[in-house]
Specification:
The complex is a heterodimer of chains A (about 180) and B (about 160). By secondary structure, chain A is an all-alpha fold. Chain A is built from six helices and no strands. With about 160 residues, chain B is α/β, with parallel strands linked by helices. Chain B has a five-stranded mixed β-sheet, sandwiched between helices. The model of chain B has no long low-confidence stretch (mean pLDDT about 85). Classes of the chains: A mainly alpha (about 180), B alpha/beta (about 160).
Chain lengths: ~180, ~160
C-alpha cells in the first residue's frame, strides 16, 4: 500500500463516517436540521422533510466515499457539501446570528468561528484528497483498503465522542440542588 | 498477512462502535441532567400558578415551547385535537417569525399565547428548558414535567389524581 493510497482510504473513511453520522442523525431526527435550514435562510418553513432530505444527501455521499475511497467523485461531492456549509455559516456569522446548526451531528452547539474552521477543514481535506485521487493511484488491495477505511472511521468516531464529552462534561462536579418544601 | 490485516480492520471497527456508544450514552446522561435541573428550577408544586394559567376551576395544562427549540417543533407535530383531553394553554416564546409557524401547528382546541404575553408567563413560571409542562388545579401548580409526548401530559394528570 502506497502513502497516497493510505491517505486516500483513511481520509475517505473519516469523511464518510463523519457524513454518515451526521446524515443518519438528520434522517432519524430531522427537526434540528429543518430549523437550522430556516435560520440559514435556505427554506422558509420548518418542515421535517427538508431535514431528512439533507440527511439522505449526506448519507449517499458517505456511502459513495466508503464504497469507492480512491475515486475523486465522492470526494468532490464531500468538498461541495463542505463549501456549501462554509458559505451558509459565514453568511450567518457576518449577519451576527447565533443558533444551533445541527452540524456534524451536534444538535445544540451554536454556530461560531469554530464551526467555520471545522467546515473549512472538511472542505480542504476533501478537496486535497480529490486532487490526489484524480492523479489516478492504483486501487489498493481489498484488505488494505478495509484497514484504511476502518482507521478513518475510528478516528471520526473517537473525535465525535470527544466532542460530546467536551460539550456535556458528564464527569464535572455539579452542585446538588435540594428543593425547599 | 491478509488475515492479520482483516483482524486489524475488525478491531478498529469494534473500537468505532465503542466510541459511538460512549457518545450516545454521554449525550443521554447530559440531557437527563439538564431535564432534571429544569424540573427543579420551575415553580414548586403547591405554588400559585402565574396569571393567565390560574383562571377557572379544575385541571389546566400549560405547555411551554420555544420557537427555536427543535424538540418543541417535534412535540407540536405529535399534538392533535384527539390528544387534548384537558384544557391546554401553550405558551410559545422565541423568535416571532418561527413562533407564528409553531403556533400554526398547534391544534385549535388549545389556547395559544405568543409574543410578550408568552415571555411574561414563561418568566413567571421560571421555565428554563423547553418543552416543559405544568399541571394546574384550581389555580395551584399540581404537577410539572419535561414532556416527550402527549401521553406524558396525560400521565401528569393521572399522577396528580
Amino acid at each position: 500500500m502506497t502513502v497516497s493510497q493510505f491517505f486516500l482510504t483513511v481520509g475517505a473513511g473519516s469523511l464518510g463516517s463523519l457524513l454518515g453520522l451526521s446524515g443518519g442523525q438528520k434522517i432519524i431526527s430531522p427537526f434540528p436540521a429543518s430549523l437550522a435550514m430556516v435560520r440559514f435562510g435556505l427554506v422558509r418553513r420548518v418542515n421535517p422533510a427538508f431535514g431528512r432530505t439533507a440527511g439522505i444527501v449526506e448519507a449517499l455521499v458517505a456511502v459513495a466515499l466508503l464504497a469507492a475511497p480512491t475515486s475523486p467523485w465522492p470526494l468532490l461531492a464531500a468538498a461541495g457539501l463542505g463549501a456549501l456549509f462554509i458559505v451558509v455559516v459565514s453568511r450567518s456569522l457576518f449577519a451576527g446570528k447565533s443558533f444551533p446548526c445541527a452540524c456534524f451531528g451536534n444538535r445544540s452547539e451554536p454556530i461560531s468561528v469554530a464551526t467555520l474552521v471545522r467546515a473549512a477543514c472538511v472542505f480542504l481535506a476533501a478537496a486535497s484528497l480529490a486532487i490526489v485521487a484524480s492523479l489516478g493511484p492504483p486501487a489498493p488491495p481489498m484488505t488494505a483498503s478495509l484497514v484504511g477505511l476502518a482507521c478513518g472511521a475510528t478516528l471520526a468516531c473517537i473525535a465525535a465522542a470527544i466532542a460530546v464529552l467536551h460539550q456535556t462534561r458528564p464527569f464535572q462536579k455539579r452542585p446538588i440542588v435540594v428543593e425547599a418544601t | 498477512m491478509v488475515v492479520q490485516l482483516a483482524l486489524v480492520a475488525a478491531w478498529l471497527a469494534v473500537l468505532s462502535v465503542v466510541a459511538l456508544a460512549v457518545k450516545r450514552e454521554t449525550l443521554f446522561v447530559g440531557l437527563s441532567v439538564l431535564r432534571s435541573d429544569a424540573v427543579i428550577a420551575g415553580l414548586s408544586i403547591g405554588d400559585a400558578a402565574p396569571r393567565g394559567l390560574s383562571s377557572g376551576r379544575g385541571y389546566r395544562l400549560a405547555l411551554f415551547l420555544s420557537s427555536d427549540c427543535p424538540p418543541c417543533h417535534e412535540f407540536a407535530d405529535y399534538l392533535n385535537d384527539e390528544s387534548i383531553h384537558t384544557p391546554l394553554t401553550v405558551a410559545i416564546s422565541g423568535p416571532p417569525d418561527l413562533a407564528s409557524q409553531l403556533a400554526a401547528r398547534i391544534p385549535r382546541a388549545a389556547d395559544v399565547v405568543i409574543g410578550e404575553a408568552a415571555d411574561t408567563i414563561v418568566a413567571a413560571a421560571r421555565v428554563t428548558f423547553q418543552p416543559f409542562a405544568l399541571l394546574v388545579r384550581d389555580g395551584i401548580v399540581a404537577g410539572k414535567s419535561y414532556p416527550t409526548s402527549p401521553r406524558s401530559l396525560e400521565l401528569m394528570i393521572t399522577g396528580a389524581e
